[in-house]
Every structure is written in structure tokens, then in C-alpha cells.
Amino acid sequence: MIKTATRLALVALAANLVGCMPSEEDFDMMPQRPAGLDQLDQFIGTWEGEMEMHAEGMDAPMTSTGVFTNKWANDNWIMVGHGTMSMEGNENPMMEVWTWDESIKKFRTSGYYGSMTGESLAWYDADDGLWRMKGGGRNLITGYVTKGKGTMKMTDPDTMEWTWTEYDTTGLIKLMEMKGTHRRK
Q1: Does the global pTM surpass 0.70?
Q2: What is the spatial distance between Cα 38 and Cα 30, in angstroms, rounded to a whole number?
Q3: Rounded CA gap, 162 and 109, in Å?
Q4: Are 63 and 181 in contact (CB under 8 A)?
Q5: Is 56 helix (H, G, I), strand (E, B) or coil?
Q6: Rg of the chain over CA atoms, in angstroms?
Q7: I need a surface site. Which of 79, 83, 100, 181 has the fewest CB within 10 A?
Q8: How many CB atoms lie within 10 A of CB 92?
């Protein structure tokens, strides 16, 4: 009796699931690409840059150079960037992914920088011509979690200046400040 009831329940569940499967017509009704994604067109291409980082307790700032390339992926719905950053003789891989969240009219970013990961929200503030970012990160080796905020500004179509300030998990203790300039190749 229990086996029969279980089998009937599974058949009913399977029938419901089959009814929930999207039809071919559903796949033909792909939503229209959000216009907000067009804001990223200015970042597409290959960029060379230099960065200066000052962490609490350091006597002198550290500098680094890097090259990265941003490309559209998934029919121009996602911007993906790959590159390398050289700091103190070490080459570190970098990767960023930018997607548009229509519900909040902001970008969601995920970044991977050597042993660090980060996620943030990013948006363009037309009042002062700045891109603003706010998010957090995690060191994959130590597990240490941070919060951060930053800005980006296109000073001309081929030059981008940026800042990033990182704090402890409370957001009260400043750990480091970074700034950099990137130029389109």
C-alpha cells in the first residue's frame, strides 16, 4: 500500500514537472536586453594601467602595473574582463564579471584578483560624472573578509582613473587605499 502511494505521488510530481518545462515558444520570447548595459560600452577593450596602494602600517606605498581586456559575453548581456597585475615581481591573474540588475538599476560585479575575491554594486552618478562602487571581499588564503568603496571616472574616452578604500568587516577601520589610472591600448 505504501509503495503504491509513493509511486503515485512520484508519477504526479513528474507530471507536474513536465508541465512546468518551458516550451519552444518560451525560448523564443527572450527578454529584451536592458539599455542599462550600454553604459559598459566605454569599458570594452584592452587597458594598461598602474596602481598605487598604501596599507596601514606601510612606510611607503606599493606600486603595480597591469593589462586587462574587457569583452562582451552571452550576447552582450555580461561584460567579462581578464588580465594580469604585476606587483613586487609577482604576476597575479585578474578576472571581473559585470551584470545588470534591472530590479535595482545597478551593476553587480564579481572579481577575482589572485587570492582575493570581491563582489560589489556599481552605478553611474551623472550628477558628478563618477562611477561608484560599494562591496566586500575575501582573502581565499586567510579567510579574512573586508568591506570597500570606490570610484571610477573617465577623464577622456581612453583614460580611466579609479580609487578604492578597503575597511575591516565592521567598516570602521581603514585597511588600505588604492588609486590607479588605466589607458586604452
Answers
A1: yes
A2: 18
A3: 16
A4: no
A5: coil
A6: 22
A7: 181
A8: 16
SS3 state at 78: strand
Is residue 5 included in any domain, yes or no? no
**Beta-strand (E) ranges in the chain?**
45-55, 62-73, 78-87, 90-101, 106-113, 116-125, 130-139, 145-156, 159-167, 174-184
What are the grid coordinates assigned to 80, written together? 567579462
For residue 18, being part of any structural domain is answered with: no
Distance CA(47)–CA(58), nearest Å, equals: 28
Tell me: the pLDDT tens digits for 86-108?
Answer: 988 889 999 999 999 999 999 99
**CA distance to 9, 46, 174, per residue, from 148 (Å):** 50, 25, 9
Whether 14 is covered by a domain: the verdict is: no
**Within a domain: residue 11?**
no
Number of structural domains in the chain? 1
Q: What is the grid cell recorded at 36?
A: 542599462
Q: How many CB atoms neighbour CB 49 within 10 A?
A: 19
Enclosing domain of residue 128? 37-184
- Summarised one tens digit per residue, pLDDT across range 108-162 is 999 998 888 999 999 999 999 999 999 999 988 888 999 999 999 999 999 999 9
C-alpha cell at 183: 589607458
C-alpha 124/C-alpha 137 separation (Å) is: 21
Q: CATH code at 73?
A: 2.40.128.20
